[in-house]
Amino acid sequence: MAIQGNHSHSLEVLKGGVEATVQDYPGRLGYWDIGIPPSGPLDDYSFRLANLLVGNQPGDAALEVAAGMFSVRAKSDVVVAVTGADMQPTLAGKPAPMWESFVVKQGEDLTLGIAKTSGFRAYIAVAGGIEVPDYLGSKSTFAAGGFGGFQGRALKAGDVLQVGKKEKEKDGLVGRKVVENAIPKFNQTLEVEATVGPQAAPDFIKEEDLDAFFSEVHKVDRNANRLGYRLTPRQWKWARSDGGVAGKHPSNIIDNGYTVGSVNVSGDQPIILMRDGPSAGGFICLCCVVTGSLWKVGQAAPGRDQLKFKKVSYDEAIELRRKLEKNLETGVK
Amino acid sequence: MASTEVVAPTAGLVVQVNVTEGQSVQAGETVVVVQSMKTEISVTADVAGKVSKIHVKKDDEVNIGQVLVEIES
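The joint structure predicted for all components is written out below.
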């Protein structure tokens, strides 16, 4: 089917749903030192696969749909792909494929339901990418800061998203698929790999408690979001009786820098710092979810799913990231 | 008459029920507000019709996919 590349394409949002945002990858890098987070897709693996399916660069701007109930109408023929959580996508009322590129004809609606059984975020990529202005070098939405993406906020009904022009016609853009072994499976208990520290045992918590943390399953709190993935509070065996000069609670330390993926312990509650999260603060960071594994966290549904942490070494962390990149290179046929 | 279920898109706490049984609603109208992800989520009716059944009340905890309200249209 011929998709014209020389005229303006757009999508009209019919239902904004719970939290649908424009994101790009790797997001807004270079401003962490002044507290501006990278933002970008929480599941950057599914996000990049969606872009690759429609012939885009893997990091081009596309849509992240958290929890679902989202619907767009094509104002012209466009090629799209839906990946991530299964929200029972429909095209013009009929089931639409996932992990595969297809055409949405002018006037047709692409609709997502909810993540009924597993996963929490779906991604919609459009050939040509979503056109929004760059802000500090990125098209990613940072809604808590009110900037980036589409008017610095989640999408709502009536918004019209411009789709970027493609340089030229791309043959075979439709019907491209993610190969079976590259499609991630989202279970209600997700295992995520993490490196220990920087503030762990024996200085901040007891050795046996670190082991306990890695053997337990942690329910995701209903207030988990793009800033932080809150987990259920637990009783810690602290190594210190208080935080010394930093505060009364033994989770307190003198303010220091955080990294995206840090498992922050705020009082008794572990919180995984996500892509819209804080760059610094005064709580211990027990471990860090590694880059090659962090994408899975955003697929854990708040109030429903559980996480289990698996201790990995620095070398294993690098290997995980390599494997993920390899899957992206070979995952789309 | 078709019955349409309005379901919770995410687990959360019901903070507001905007409708009463027997009331007419428009498509797109907020029927229930659920607090989740540190924000308040307006759950809307997909179709216009009459509220035939309300399954939740304020302060109820709901799960993903739980039926909140039924609408006859």
